[in-house]
Amino acid sequence: MMIVLGNCLRKRMSMNSTISIVLFLAFLFFVSATGARSLINGQSHTLFARFPRAADGICAAMIETWGYVCEEHKVTTADGYILSMQRIPASRSGAKPDKPPVLLQHGLLMDAMTWVLNPPDQSLAFILADNGYDVWLSNTRGTKYSRGHTSLSAFDLAYWDWSWDELVAYDLPAVVQHVSDQTGQKPHYVGHSLGTLVALAAFSKNGLVTALRSAALLSPIAYVNQVPSALTKGAAHAFLAEDLYWLGVQELNPREPMVLEVVETLCTSLGLDCTNLMTPFTGPNCCLNSSITSPFLDHELQPTATKNAIHLSQMVRQGSIAKFDYGAPGLNVERYGQPTPPVYEMASIPHEFPLYVSYGGQDQLSDPGDVQTLLDSLRDHNSDQLVVQYREDYAHADFVFAVNANQIVYYPLMAFFGRN
């Protein structure tokens, strides 16, 4: 199927080198949850070299160093991927939780470090733990600590034969089930960016709604055809991800030297301001904590499957939320029993399931217009089970890295949990 897919999605590469560089960079940060600077003072790969990635697990690297107890867990999905999870089972003072578990799911090109990069009074995972919640962090397949498989190596092409469809079908159910098995309780769910898309898709198929207490969606990614970033749209409409797949790039790893050289070339040849490359892609984040730059560079960005990026690009072009399109009616019939991919209908999300939706006016990935399309599809949702929060000055990364997100987002979020 992978070879057939590569041939089916092949297109002629006619862009000149400058446009290719621009679109390649845009694609790499598409739907990224990143909030720290990628380049600082015009430096790229030299900066990543200065802060090598930590060899320890997330517990040892970022959680226990703040004085919290942390447990490392492994979860095997039904299709054989071995995922890492972290649990913070007590507050910093050692108090045991008196509230239900909460499962946190990161976005694209990130891992569970998303929730613990800021100091304890600014990181959602620590804030939840200190307020009596049993906190669980999930790491998507392919990221540094979730590269295991029961029969495949991450060096095998077949290992990367997945998109976010598989995160919906396998990863999310596995980690939710593990939390329930370990705690004997149904957890609340918090997703950011791609972590919201997989949840919404699952809910639309009536999956997991009986296994969760509620879901909070920060910078929700659902409909994305109004994404205002010209570079992000350009990458999708130029079929750049498909080109990469055809060239044999099944694993998209932003930390590869080739990628870093692309970034450096872009800065020097096009005269771009390399001190803050996130703004053109995530929007102008208002309130990031500059102190996370070093730990961010130490641990992020994380790999994903090129097929996953193709799927996201299809969403931008098609304006719908559907399963992966294999590019030919026959291939779709073989996979789905119909010539076009099945659609995830947001209106099918059970109306009584508690949802908290928080989005920002400056977000160029979770565009307010796209979020409104999502909210329009939820117009029949029980009014007392849908909380919508809008913050005009917030962009994509502010929801997980802003210094004031504790007061603006997290405390209202915990109040929402307290009702469900």
Can you walk me through this structure?
GO terms for molecular function: hydrolase activity, acting on ester bonds. Keywords: Hydrolase, Lipid degradation, Lipid metabolism. This is Lipase. Helix 2 (17-28) packs across helix 8 and helix 9 (240-246) runs antiparallel to helix 13. This protein is α/β, with parallel strands linked by helices. It has helices spanning 2-8, 17-28, 45-50, 58-63, 124-130, 164-183, 194-204, 230-237, 240-246, 257-270, 279-282, 293-299, 306-318, 329-336, 368-377, 398-401, 405-418; strands at residues 71-76, 81-88, 101-105, 134-138, 148-149, 188-192, 214-218, 251-252, 304-305, 355-360, 386-391. The strands form 2 sheets. Strands 1, 2, 3, 4, 5, 6, 7, 10 and 11 form a 9-stranded mixed beta sheet that branches. A two-stranded antiparallel sheet has the order 8-9. The radius of gyration is 20 Å and the shape is globular. Helix 7 links the parallel strand 6 (188-192) and strand 7 (214-218). The chain has one domain: Alpha/Beta hydrolase fold, catalytic domain (Rossmann fold), CATH 3.40.50.1820.
